[in-house]
Each structure stands twice: as C-alpha cells, then as structure tokens.
Amino acid sequence: MAAVTSRSQVQRSPLSDTKRKIMKTAAELFAGEGYGSVGTSQISEATGYGKGALYYHIRSKGDLLYDIMTIYLEDLLSEARQILAEKRHVKERVYALSESILRAVVEDKAEMTVCFREVHALEDTRRRSVLRLHGAYLGIWRQVTDDAAREGDFRPLDNDELKALMGMYFYSFLWIGNDRTADIPALAAKFSGIIMRACHA
Amino acid sequence: MAAVTSRSQVQRSPLSDTKRKIMKTAAELFAGEGYGSVGTSQISEATGYGKGALYYHIRSKGDLLYDIMTIYLEDLLSEARQILAEKRHVKERVYALSESILRAVVEDKAEMTVCFREVHALEDTRRRSVLRLHGAYLGIWRQVTDDAAREGDFRPLDNDELKALMGMYFYSFLWIGNDRTADIPALAAKFSGIIMRACHA
DNA sequence: TCGTCGACCGACCGACCGGTATAATATCGT
DNA sequence: ACGATATTATACCGGTCGGTCGGTCGACGA
C-alpha cells in the first residue's frame, strides 16, 4: 500500500504505514459511533492488530484522536494557504477553497467528521491546540473576504457572518455522502456561488 | 420550579419535573463530553439522584438521549410550522425562522448541541426517527424557498444548496455562546440577511 | 392505625474499559 | 550465523460501565 494521501502532507514525524492504517480505521469507528463509545479492543479488532501492537504505535486513545485531527487539519490548512498564495481574484479563491474542503469532506469523510464533530472529546490543552487550527483556517477565509472588501467586491463581514458561512462547510460532512466524488466540482460551484451572493457588496 | 419551558411544548406524555431535570443535566453532560464518554453514575451524581432513582425515571441511557432529541426537535418543529402558518412574506418567514432556531441555540444550547451533534450515538431505529425530524424541519425551509421561488423572489434552490444553508444554523451551536441572549435579534438579522442575499433571484 | 404506593437509595452484577507486562517472532546490519 | 531491534500476541490489571435489585421512607386513603 502506498504511503501517500492524495493531498499534500505535512510530515511532522515519519508516520509509519501501520500508524496511518490505525488512524484511518479509528477515524471510521469514531465517525460512526463517537469517540467515547469506541473501545480500544474494538480498534484492535478492526485493524487486525492485537492490543500490544496497537499500543506500540499509539501512546493512548486520546493521542490517537488528537493525531487524526492535527494531521488532517494541518493538511487542509496548508492547502488553503497555498490557494491564498496562488490565486489573487476573489472568485477563484472562493471556488478553490470550496473545492479543497469539499474534496476533503468527500474523500476523507471519516477524518473530517472527527475533526469537526469530536473536538469536545479532547482534553483541555489539546482542544485548545485543535481550536487554534480551526481558527487558523477561519483566518484564511477572513483574509479572502477582507481583501475582497478592500477592493470593493465584497461588503464587510463581521465574525458572526463569517462563522455562519463556515458552518455550511463544517456541517456538510453530515449530509454529503462519500459516493459523490464526481459531484465535487458541482458542489464547489454551489457553495462558492452562495458565498459570492451572500457577500456581494 | 415551573414545569414549562419558554417555548411551546408538545406534551407527548406527562413528563415529570424530575425527568425534565434529569434531561437538562444529562444534555449538559452529553454536550460537554459526548454521549459515549458520560457514564450513568456521572449523571446520577450530577443530578443528585442515586442510580436507583435515575433508572426509576428513565428506561436506559439510550432512551434518555432519544427523549432529549425528540422533545427539543419537536418543539423546534412546531414553532417552525406555526411561523409558516402565520407569516406569508418571505422576508418575515426567513427572519422568524432564524430567530426561532437561534433562540433555541442560545437558550437551550446543550440540548440543541445534542440534537445535532450526537445523532450517530442513537441505535438505528431511533436514529432514523430523529433524522425524520431533521428532515421535517428541512421541509419547512424547503416550502419557504419554494413559495418564494414561485413568486419570483428567490431563485430555485436544489437540495444541496438548501442543506448547505441549513448547515449555517445546525453548526452555530458550536460557536454561539449562551451568553448572547441579547444578541439574538442581531444574529437573526445577520443569518436571514445571508439567506436573502444567497437566494435572491 | 395500618396498608399501599410512588420516589428514592446504594450495594451489587457481569462485562468491558484503557492500558501494561511479558514473551514470542520477524527483520536486519554485520 | 549472530545479536540487536522492531513489531506483534496474549494474558492480565484495577477500575468503571450500564443496569438491576432488595429494600427504605414518607404521604395518603380507609
């Protein structure tokens, strides 16, 4: 099995294939039943590793959750930063950002669900750290809308409005099926269309 | 303590004050730590009742979750139906619906969080039942947008677009604090403003 | 005064929790 | 071939899980 995902990857530490497989399986279980309802024996069984092997690769169940969130959010974030650097026009930016996050929602549905739905399961320090990543992602959009407002394309948006609009994306993992890969461009067009209309000066 | 909530209540079965208190406390725990991570002993301790008393009022932990969701979603739904019956103009309808759900998010934050974030924790039959309630609520908005489209005020919206827009509301419990009671009208104005712009013909 | 009843308690049940200890096996550089 | 190291399985730990059970207690009707 190849050790790469389709989207760019921040290599914080080597991250073995085994650990990647464990994270994928765990994310699916967490997304399906909720972090608190999934036992380590269940993860062990689903991955095919015994508990010893499992705990050779993870430090704790909490760490596993934190790692899943961190890796996928950093991935999403680095893609967003790249889009911000490459595209200069509002419309392109909004479409590319929409396409980026919606592709993540479809292709890594379980992981994204965990990233946005299971934040409460983290202990305080880690929750704050993950919320910083959420905030950083929001910051990218904030910059897009502020730039657009400065150039007269968008009306100014306050934080409430921006967060409300982000909710469209952050809630979409609950209803966008992972069988909609082919629809990603259409979905991105719909989402970015809504953003463009909602923010029109 | 009065046995009524501020918003209209569907009286399916008597629903004692004790059970109401248990539901409120449990909803706060579920919202704070996630259904699966909250134990019945914890609920028992937080309510001040022993486990015997607790299980005198509830059939199971799963039932408790289901009851919370059902009651609050039916409440939200009946309010929405009433708005649909009373208001005829799009703008009024959108504002009133926004105000209704945002007030629920602020005033019954924990319960609403559970209603929209813990669906996965339900066993199949009950999950389907709760998802029907979600669908019914979506149906109200569908009718509003369809009526508006028929009269030329809105462009036609497909299901993806409607669900995307609903995500704004359904995700808002994660960032709207329960200290914003005074801001409810302003929030409703912002949300409905976005809807009106996003749907403009 | 008693019997009944709803509300409640806390000890207890077997099962399972997250996590560890120990040992067996696979891999690999030399 | 050898030792070292990486990876895995299994048995097991104390503790907690959801839920039950026998029983207590005060209110109330007869």
Q: Quick gist of this model?
A:
Chains A, B: Keywords: DNA-binding. Chain A contains 9 helices and no strands. With 201 residues, chain A is an all-alpha fold.
List the helices and strands and how they pair.
Two copies of one chain form a homodimer.
Chain A: H1 17-33, H2 40-47, H3 51-57, H4 61-86, H5 90-107, H6 109-117, H7 124-150, H8 159-170, H9 184-199
Helix pairs in contact in A: 1-4, 1-6, 4-5, 4-6, 4-7, 5-6, 5-7, 5-9
Chain A binds a DNA duplex (30 and 30 nucleotides) through helix 3.
Description of the structure:
The structure is a homodimer of 201-residue chains. Chain A has 201 residues and is an all-alpha fold. Chain A has a domain of 140 residues: Tetracycline Repressor, domain 2 (Orthogonal Bundle). The first copy, chain A, has 9 helices and no strands. In chain A, helix 4 crosses helix 6. The first copy, chain A, is elongated and about 60 Å long. Chain A starts with 16 loop residues before the first helix and ends with a helix. The N terminus of chain A is likely disordered. Chains A and B meet through helix 1, helix 8 and helix 9 of A and helix 1, helix 8 and helix 9 of B. Chain A binds a DNA duplex (30 and 30 nucleotides) through helix 3.
